[in-house]
Design brief:
heterodimer; A: alpha/beta; Aconitase, domain 4; B: Aconitase, domain 3; Aconitase, domain 3; 3 domains; 5-stranded parallel sheet; 18 strands
């Protein structure tokens, strides 16, 4: 169900702007369901009505600042994942969306500056946290995640992580050197 | 070593060791809350995790507030799932009509000062009004708390927001709050804690503090901690104050002495301007309610505007009290009668039309003025509607005249 988080991923980019909020990722009126296909059917509906027709399994969302701001609804990353999106690249992410995506095994890459347009073929290396753009040959390096998030993502999400570890495992005082 | 922020102190007590901003730590969670939007996924995920016993059923609170009473068969069955799970695990469940989860948590003292609380709802930051560290999480994080009673977090850096001076007469806590959100911006505090302080903050009632803290998330913040000076609760508590020399990433001062009523233009809660830029805009619908502005103080402010008058004939005014307790208090003191006589329609205490599911979805190209906290496109259920955010008094004054109206001067043209 979840995307194996240790692979090279390849797919096409769907590019959006800043502050894409969770209401535009999945409107609140569609969130009251456990059916992930229903969520996928309405993903990005108000922002890009053509997205559902255009998206192919393995594609990427590429966005500007503060992707996923607004509500805590985990239906937002679930809708994208169920629509076939294998990773989201953005200049920055809202805090709750960031945790939610990692918790369901949807990789996020925070890349401060990029030249990517809709339709670009991207090659994402999750181990190296890089995204290569076929059109330009440029390779972008994403900000490092805290080690606990890397472990959750590598496990495929928080459910398999807890199944493997039984509890949260964080070094007594880890202080990552990234911001 | 330097002093600690409020967030560092509360998180440290729950990690059982001294912590500083940027530390990644595991913390004990005192209480957790989930609503009918988030609980169903959390319950399913908890079962996937192999969960059977909830870590502390007395502190696991489920509230049916987002689509309550159920508008569809599918949602009714999600409510059944919640009721069944709560009964089987001995968790607390508040039924439809009891109110918005956050208000119910406060009224029942399910959350207290100094505690660390997570809720599967972004407005969980509201408990910062009680001097508690509280963050919104998704369903999977909530499921993990239900299973383990713990979570991991990166200790947030803190932005200190200091309001300078006393607010003028007629300027409400919502106006102060919108001014802060406008100043910080929609991602101005992403991943940060906010500490609110200054004379105008310390003067706030509990209702006003809840308004202010609720919208911390509209700046991206993971906590919104209101200065505990002046906080009054119906029980004894020990306040956590920032220590001398605490390190702030940023200190922002806002002079509120000349502040005018504030309004957020469509489609973002940080598109905040003085109401003078919007006066005269024709409205179709007005809404008072939500975890931000559905309390007694808010209803009274609206009643003061509408007493003995009637809303414009082309306007519908929908009011959702934040809780049954608020509704009952408003019945006792006459507030509800005043508003009803003025033409208001009351709906079940709960989230109401704020989340766009039912109870007041606007039509295409209609204009809504709302006392809620968010006006993202489509938020109220129709991406073709335009939603403005303002104080309850401004919403009431606008309903009265049928156009956006300044609450303090009555100017509407």
């Amino acid at each position: 169900m979840t995307v194996p988080a240790t692979h090279m991923l390849s797919g096409h980019a769907h590019v959006y702007g800043d502050n894409v909020d969770t209401d535009r990722i999945i409107p609140g009126k569609y969130t009251k369901t456990l059916d992930k296909r229903q969520l996928a059917a309405h993903a990005l509906e108000d922002l890009d009505p053509a997205f559902r027709e255009r998206v192919r399994v393995g594609d990427f969302i590429v966005a500007g600042d503060n992707f996923g701001c607004g509500s805590s609804r985990e239906q937002a990353p679930i809708a994208l994942q169920a629509a076939g999106v294998h990773a989201v690249l953005a200049r920055s992410f809202a805090a709750i969306f960031h945790r939610n995506a990692i918790n369901i095994g949807l990789p996020l890459l925070e890349i401060p500056e990029y030249d990517i347009v809709t339709g670009d073929l991207l090659h994402v290396d999750l181990d190296a946290s890089t995204a290569a753009v076929e059109r330009t040959g440029l390779v972008y390096v994403a900000h490092a995640l805290p080690p606990v998030m890397v472990a959750i993502l590598r496990a495929g999400g928080l459910v398999p992580y807890l199944a493997a570890h039984g509890d949260f495992v964080v070094p007594a005082r880890s202080r990552p050197d990234t911001t | 070593m330097s002093g600690r922020t409020i967030a560092e102190q509360i998180i440290g007590r729950h990690a059982d060791h001294d912590v500083r901003a940027d530390d990644v730590v595991i913390v004990r969670v005192d209480a957790a809350m989930a609503t009918d939007t988030t609980a169903p996924f959390a319950i399913e995920t908890f079962k996937e995790m192999g969960g059977r016993r909830v870590w502390n059923p007395e502190r696991m609170v489920f509230v049916i507030d987002h689509a309550a009473p159920a508008p569809t068969e599918a949602i009714a069955n999600l409510h059944v799932l919640m009721r069944t799970f709560a009964r089987e695990t001995g968790s607390v469940l508040h039924e439809i009509g009891r109110g918005i989860g956050h208000q119910v948590m406060v009224e029942n003292a399910h959350v207290r000062p100094g505690e660390l609380v997570l809720g599967a709802d972004s407005h969980t930051v509201i408990y910062g009004a009680l001097n508690a560290f509280a963050s919104g999480v998704g369903s999977t994080d909530l499921a993990a708390v239900m299973l383990t009673g713990r979570t991991w977090m990166r200790v947030p850096r803190t932005i200190r927001v200091e309001l300078v001076g006393d607010a003028p007469t007629g300027i409400s806590p919502k106006d102060l709050t919108l001014a802060i959100v406008g100043r910080l911006g929609i991602d101005g505090a992403t991943g940060r804690a906010i500490e609110y302080t200054g004379a105008a903050v310390r003067a706030l009632s509990l209702d006003g503090r809840l308004t202010m803290a609720s919208m911390a998330v509209e700046t991206g913040a993971v906590a919104g901690l209101v200065d505990a000076d002046g906080l009054t609760l119906p029980y004894a508590f020990t306040a956590t104050h920032a220590e001398a020399g605490a390190e702030y990433e940023q200190v922002i001062t806002i002079d509120v002495r000349e502040l005018t009523p504030q309004i957020a233009l469509p489609h973002s809660p940080d598109s905040v301007v003085s109401i003078t830029h919007a006066i005269g805009t024709r409205i179709d619908m007005a809404f008072i309610g939500t975890c931000t502005n559905g309390r007694l103080e808010d209803l009274r402010a609206a009643a003061d505007v509408l007493r003995g008058k009637h809303i414009a004939s082309h306007v519908r005014l929908i009011i959702a009290p934040a809780s049954r307790e608020v509704f009952a208090a408003g019945l006792r003191d006459g507030t509800i009668a005043t508003l009803t006589d003025a033409g208001a329609s009351f709906i079940t205490p709960g989230c109401g039309p704020c989340v766009g599911t039912h109870l007041g979805v606007p039509g295409n190209d209609e204009v809504v003025i709302s006392a809620a906290n968010r006006n993202f496109q489509g938020r109220m259920g129709n991406p073709r509607a335009n939603v403005y955010l303002a104080s309850p008094a401004t919403v009431a004054a606008s309903a009265l005249h049928g156009v956006i109206t300044a609450s303090n001067t009555g100017a509407h043209a």
